[in-house]
Amino acid sequence: MKRLLLLSLSLIMTMALFAQKQIKVACVGNSITYGSGLTDPKTQSYPSQLQQLLGEAYEVGNFGKPGATLLNKGHRPYMEQSEYKDALAFAGDIVVIHLGINDTDPRNWPHYRDYFVKDYLALIDSFRRVNSKCRVIIARLTPIADRHPRFESGTRDWHGEIQQAIETVADYAGVQLIDFHEPLYPYPFLLPDAVHPTKEGAGVLAQTVCSAITGNFGGLQLSELYSDNMVLQRDTPLTIQGKANAGDKIVVKLAGQQATTKATDNGRWAVTLRPLKAGGPYTLTVAGQKQKLVYTDVLIGEVWLCSGQSNMEFMVKQAATAKSALLQADNNLIRLFDKKARWRTNAVEWDQSVLDSLNHLQYYADTQWSVASSGSVSSFSAVAYYFGKMLQDSLQVPVGLICNAIGGSPTEAWIDRETLEYQFPGILRNWTQNDFIQDWVRGRAALNVKKSTNKQQRHPYEPCYLYEAGIRSFDQFPIKGVIWYQGESNAQNRETHEKLFTLLVQSWRKNWKNETLPFYYVQLSSLDRPSWTWFRDSQRRLMKQIPHTGMVVSSDCGDSLDVHPINKKPIGERLARWALNQTYGQTNVVPSGPLFRSMELRDGAAYLSFDYAENMGSADRQPLRTFEVAETEGVYYPATAEVIGSQIKVYNKKVKQPHYVRYGWQPFTRANLVNGSGLPASTFRTDK
To answer: Which of 245, 481, 488, 677 could crosslink 590 through cysteines, CB 3.0-4.6 Å?
Structure first.
């Protein structure tokens, strides 16, 4: 509120100045302000582009000094440079400051960090002394990409500490804070040397400053997920947020509630409505001072995000049960938001127009919510649809399904950049060549962008890309939980996937500010790929390591030759079982088949205990098969397996002292252990 009041006063002052004279804008900074790395800094630097945006009513001066530090004890203090003296003489009515990037140098921040806030305040005061009415705007630092040679040795961490110090300065000095980091952060190709923006990147900075000065952020806007026919999450404080011009009054009305707020000086606004019960239809109205957005046929119910790669993308019309599904598809209480890519990532070469569009994170086509019908369901995810249908049948409330799945996509493409920069930076570097990427993933990406002459060309498989293009844009639209079907593109390296999958869940929970966000996923099915046995067992173990998760077994629905098995209905319904049991408290619904828990060794046999083991038996009335036993790891023998009470006895007369048991340990397995609900057991191996 303090900053908003200051902004309002600043805008009034600016208008008064405009009535008297040309408004002078002093852009103070380092090489990024100056325009280093650009072909023609005089026309391409952000101050030059800002002049074009603001027009003749303003005079913009560029007072950038390459290599300058904010710290007065730094290796090149800005306040000792001739550009600083020129900026003072300019006596700007508006002063825009972007300093601190060079303070990440090991010659500076480790030694003089304690002086940063006071030095910044002194710089601000010096401009106020030459023009007591000047409006000061300071900027959060532009990104430093992970390609920077000192990124992990200090730059990454010091950059973050300086960002916090800049925010402290803004609060203490009562000046406007703008963000040079957020608008460039998803676009690493706009920083070819890891620091200096291209002409386009400088244009992004110019637009950021222009909006800050004028308060024009493009008017009233909400996430693409707001449209007619949408479903909003029930029984939780409902935050609705968006953008608008600075200071605009925003009025939100829904289901008899009304909330009012004002857009902040960075053009953001948010209101929180009281929890709503399932129902509708309602009309959501969001009104600004000059615009009004009206969304009709809005339902309140359960909203789930459905994501992953091609087996989640696999459409109802491709499934074995397509005919019966489409005959029953019409359901006003199921709503679909199908976020599809503009171009497939299969093994085809893209044309140049595709490559140009991908550069701007426009990989996805525009879409809106639709009511479930034979037409909309046909091209929707089969797994997601069957999940939602079972939820709607069981809960008898509206269900909204958001599908965002990309064929072939690796886990790392779905994780936010900050998480990878701090937790797994190695996977970001030279991603098409490093050892973390499967050869076929790398090869397909290379084929897709074969025509590109841009060495920084992005592809949807690039680490962080799908988060930045397809998750970040959701703007924290309220959801109940996530279902996930992915792993085929990471199955060659289970150790890497274990780390990545953990980071993925953490990343999305952080995005939605919900540490207990349910995350239910599908274990890879049966297929003749040797690494899949270990990978499936790794997925099983991850369920125990990451709270509020559940895993669906799909090995009984696999196809030995096809990575896309067509029997998707059981998979969607098994995901729904996890949600009904764990999220909605329907304890009468068994969420899983038998899951190995522990092993006892006695009398030359192994006795195995399982969770969800009631009425265990054979799925096909044949003897239990694919159990193996070993005294020494790696030397396994086929074993006899018998249900003994609530346990399974496993033995082989050749193995006198069994220490290890494994089950379904084949890439394509015909394992047949199920529980009384007919749900299959996960393949597994025991530890000694």
So the answer is: 677
